[in-house]
Amino acid sequence: MLLKNRLFTPGPTPLLPAAQTAMAAFSLHHRTADFKALFSRVLSDMKDFIGTKNDVLVLSCSGTGVLEGSVSNLTSPGDKVLVLTAGKFGERWRDLAKTYGCNVELISVPYGETFSLDEIKQKLTPDIKAVYVQATESSTGVRHDVQGISKLVRANGDDTLLVVDAITGLGTTHFDVDGWGIDIIIGGSQKALMIPPGLANAAFSERAWKRMDTTKSPRYYFDFRKERKNAAKGESAYTPATSLFAALGAALDFVRQMGAGDLAAGRKALVDNAELAAEMTRAGAKALGLTLFAPTAPAAALTAINAPAGLDSSALVKDFRDRFSAVVANGQGDMKGKMIRVAHIGYYDYLDTIGILGALEHVLAKVTGKPVEYGAAVKAAQQVYAQASAGKPQLVGV
Ligand SMILES: *Cc1c(COP(=O)(O)O)cnc(C)c1O
Question: What integer pLDDT is reported at residue 398 of this predicted model?
């Protein structure tokens, strides 16, 4: 049978065709007026995408570059920081903070779970300079309570900054960045922005900018204050990934169209779309007798589905690829073999979701060798869709 390659991975995600066309046609030099106009427009639109009035930077690097900068710019060696970790990306915060010589306090919960706000409250002392957390832990499919955590951090005083890795959270989760007082919120191009890897973005509070005046950790490429000065003139300090800026401009236009001309409304529609696809997927998996890896606080960004007992999930991943050319993610690190992860971040629609659930039925039947009730997952997902949307068309893919 004919096969189309399809990504269901939590980054990179499927590309928006209009963004691909925009980047293919692009050849502006980065120090020209035309490029500066594009650069400034992208930064301004990104504020609406993130939902903030704070200054935003878009840097040429993968997401981890801005994670690293959010440690090097906000801390000095020896500073006490609190890292909340519940998976591979939380562990990345821990490792980065240690790399820059921070005195790392850790709250660590088992994979698949989220934090207790009480425990965070107890650990928050006035000497903690920054709190690092994920909005959605892409390695486990968990959503953390960023609003609840923000309240606690803000109550701890202005000397404690809150840094949120929302690389899979932006575009899949509703945030009130300024209202909650998030000091840095970080996103990446290869997630809900529907373009290739290579750009990372972040919004910075005035508290965060002020902190950067006094911190002593070394930084050069990721010197955010230098980038902020350049951004005010429509430039980046070094050569930006120019064609990706063209792609990002087109992607932001697409999100604006989803909101009928209002980018913030488009972002909300994109989040609702991910929520619905995730709910359909959870219902579909359960209808097949499968269990979720993160049942108590599942993210809309992705759904982590446990492999049936005694089965290595690698066999599922392989059969999805071999027979359907569908790329789903395996577990990461110690979780490899235990689960498959199916993403809903960005450019996914109803048919993608129904399609991957239909394929899941075939994959399970083959890999387990047990009979599967064909249509069970699809039916459960259709019921969720019918109830949630009451026939309203979904907006992604318009
Ligand atoms: C994808 C992702 C990252 C960024 O990884 P890069 O490979 O550096 O782009 C960071 N955090 C989370 C939660 C992610 O999903």
Answer: 45
